[in-house]
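User: For documentation purposes, I need each entry recorded in a consistent format: the amino acid sequence on its own, followed directly by the corresponding structure tokens. There are two entries in this batch. Please keep commentary to a minimum and don't merge the entries.

Assistant: Recorded as requested. Entry 1:
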Amino acid sequence: MTDEYIYRIRSRIAEIERELQRIQALEDELEELRVAERVLGRFGSISEVAINDRKQPRKQSIGDQIVQVLGFYGPLRAGAITQKLDEIRGSETRKLTVNVTLSRLKATKRIDYDGKRWFVIEGDEAPAVQPAGASSGRGDTLPIERLRLIPKP
């Protein structure tokens, strides 16, 4: 009788070990799929990118948006630029993103800083679209819904 119990126990142990090996193989496959999902999530598939490029116009960079805001509103402090971008984009823009972008724009000589405010360097493009009724755009107060940033072609 004891031998029969030992046989059943050993059989059950072998069955559980086979099941554990199968589960380990499934866990390995799951991990590979998660890695692939993350990679595709970051870069997208080639066909997905091509389809999206055809469907949607290219989004304007934050740098281009900052240059347009400064071109329309004139010299502004970094906080005011962030506030204008938030209003225009309809979402919150991180201050760090704006500050890093301002520094990069300064390094490429698109904008400059006088110690207090950021401004567009003469000769750089004005905003792609100026709101109706705005003469020079400098210092004008205008409802934000009338200022729309248009991507460069």
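Entry 2:
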Amino acid sequence: MLKKLLPEDNLEVISGLLIAIFATCLAVIDLYAGKFGDDEIIASNEKSATYEWFQAKGVKEIVAESQVHMLKSLVTSGAVVPKDTAAMNIEIGFLEKKAKRYSLDKEEVLKGSKNIDSTNWSQYDNDGKLGNIKGAFEWEKEVKILSAAGDTFDTALFFMQIALVFGAVSLILKSYNMKIIFLSSMTLLSLVGIIIGFIAFKQAIILY
């Protein structure tokens, strides 16, 4: 019955056609896996750079606060002559504003502009505009999403590659029944790989 539906002469043609189709699907999945993999590397580098930026802001904040404490101690201890007290208080006020600004900078660099109140925006982007800073937490989330998608893409590619091996084997087998088994296995594994590849694409595309 099966031989009537799939004559042996036509079986090799069908196998070759399916292998070509599934090899194309493999190439497309591999293309997107590479693209999102590159994006993951970029996001990982940006995450590291943004955390370093955050740490630099933290150091500057600590330095400014230390200067405030030192100057206040000098004033309260009487080490500053009365005529210089007013100037010293002005300097203290300036340093306190500086420390507060660094604190706001840290929040924006860590969380991202869109996740804080617009009144607290303090960082300019490369175009000199406020409110466009992508925070370290956002980069970290992007890396996690792309990493998960990358793992899913790897699984899809694994199924597709195994499927093509089954397809190649089906072409060299002599037994009709074994040809059918390997051809069916290739088709099933390829469909599984395509579905998993689509899932991986959906995982990654939410970032765009």
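Summary note for entry 2:
The chain has a mean pLDDT of 91.
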